[in-house]
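Example 9 (inverse folding). The structure is encoded as follows.
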């Protein structure tokens, strides 16, 4: 089987609209969470989110394209442009050997909600491109069409695990020899009245409206729910020999991928995070990686009570005594939970952690929780040797995904 490496990174995140900007802010603990500005949140119980602000698109989208694209497709297009130019693969000679998989959770929920009201009121005809750009697969379709790729092109929709599943499936296609390179990641634009109200009804969101920068507090004893975010993360994955022949800069190796289902509950994780444990174990087995070579885990770490506890227990159960030597962190403290884009943005951060040998912090970690007894890299980034890192994503429906990223050698 072929080795798969990471040669390009792109990010649109609440705390930075480029990979390096978002990574620097993450390492410095700078949160992008604030009071919602996309709509008037006053009637809502939850009034905070991690929004994308001041996004510049004229370097990669025309004015007409910008006006026609739905929010999540726009984010995907900008992050894809950055990742491809970062990798040097913006121009290719054999389009059948290149493809695109982009995970999306909710997609264009706001556009659908708005246009349903238009139809109900008998107002003017729907925009011509409403339906195509409302479809969840349109992020992948638009990007592939823009660059002329003719390899695999599809969408993974597995709630909060969508981005990580997309990256993992692209990894498989390259490793088995079906393609030479893939753009893979996730995109989401669900900060809408309907999106906020829906998760608030589940009592899943933080109610810390008065302190938005401190609202997302993964693994902290006083955590009270997650904060919704949005954005996109993209990685260019390549066959190692393909990348080496063209002299590409390689960030790290994508060495393993695991996925599992809880078969337990639609919204609650399995006790002790058994599904997440199996998922991490499968990722390590896929890459033939011993547990004691893992130095860092970018946790799903949503800042909800059960998720953080059960993920911690899953790590303890899988790694045993080595769990106490692991560095763990959740970057959702600075971005919020970017839903279908979360795993992809976090995969970029995990790649940079391995590449720079630097562990990003878990911010707002002030009161240890006895039920979460690991080293969560509280509040301050840490220099450390990182041979292998895992990035975890667990979604509603009991769907789990983990990828293993290894220092290139």
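The amino acid assigned to each position is listed next.
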């Amino acid at each position: 089987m072929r080795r798969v490496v990471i040669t390009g990174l792109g990010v649109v995140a609440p705390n930075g609209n480029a990979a390096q900007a978002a990574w620097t802010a993450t390492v410095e603990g700078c949160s992008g969470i604030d009071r919602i500005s996309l709509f008037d949140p006053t009637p809502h119980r939850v009034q905070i989110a991690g929004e994308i602000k001041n996004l510049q698109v004229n370097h990669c989208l025309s004015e007409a394209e910008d006006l026609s694209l739905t929010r999540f497709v726009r984010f995907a297009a900008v992050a894809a442009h950055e990742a491809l130019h970062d990798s040097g693969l913006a121009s290719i000679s054999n389009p059948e050997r290149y493809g695109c998989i982009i995970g999306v959770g909710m997609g264009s929920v706001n556009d659908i909600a708005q246009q349903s009201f238009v139809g109900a009121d008998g107002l003017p005809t729907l925009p011509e491109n409403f339906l195509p750009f409302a479809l969840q697969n349109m992020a992948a379709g638009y990007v592939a069409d823009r660059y002329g790729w003719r390899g695999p092109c599809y969408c993974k929709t597995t709630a909060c695990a969508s981005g990580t599943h997309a990256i993992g499936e692209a990894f498989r296609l390259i490793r088995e020899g079906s393609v030479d390179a893939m753009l893979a990641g996730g995109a989401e634009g669900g900060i809408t009245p309907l999106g906020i109200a829906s998760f608030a009804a589940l009592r899943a969101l933080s109610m810390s409206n008065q302190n938005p920068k401190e609202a997302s507090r993964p693994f902290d004893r006083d955590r009270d729910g997650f904060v919704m975010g949005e954005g996109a993360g993209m990685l260019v994955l390549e066959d190692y020999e393909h990348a080496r022949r063209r002299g590409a800069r390689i960030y790290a190796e994508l060495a393993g991928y695991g996925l599992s289902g809880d078969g337990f509950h639609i919204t609650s994780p399995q006790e002790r995070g058994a599904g997440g444990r199996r998922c991490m174990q499968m990722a390590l087995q896929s890459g033939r990686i011993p547990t004691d070579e893992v130095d860092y885990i970018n946790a799903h770490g949503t800042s909800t009570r059960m998720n953080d506890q059960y993920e911690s227990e899953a790590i303890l159960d899988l790694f045993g005594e080595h769990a106490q030597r692991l560095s763990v962190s959740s970057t959702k403290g600075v971005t919020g939970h970017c839903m279908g884009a979360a795993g992809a943005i976090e995969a970029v951060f995990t790649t940079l952690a391995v590449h720079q040998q630097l562990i990003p912090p878990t911010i707002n970690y002030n009161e240890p929780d006895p039920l979460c007894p690991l080293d969560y890299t509280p509040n301050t980034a840490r220099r450390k040797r990182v041979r292998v890192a895992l990035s975890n994503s667990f979604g509603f429906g009991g769907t789990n995904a983990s990828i293993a990223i290894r220092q290139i050698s």
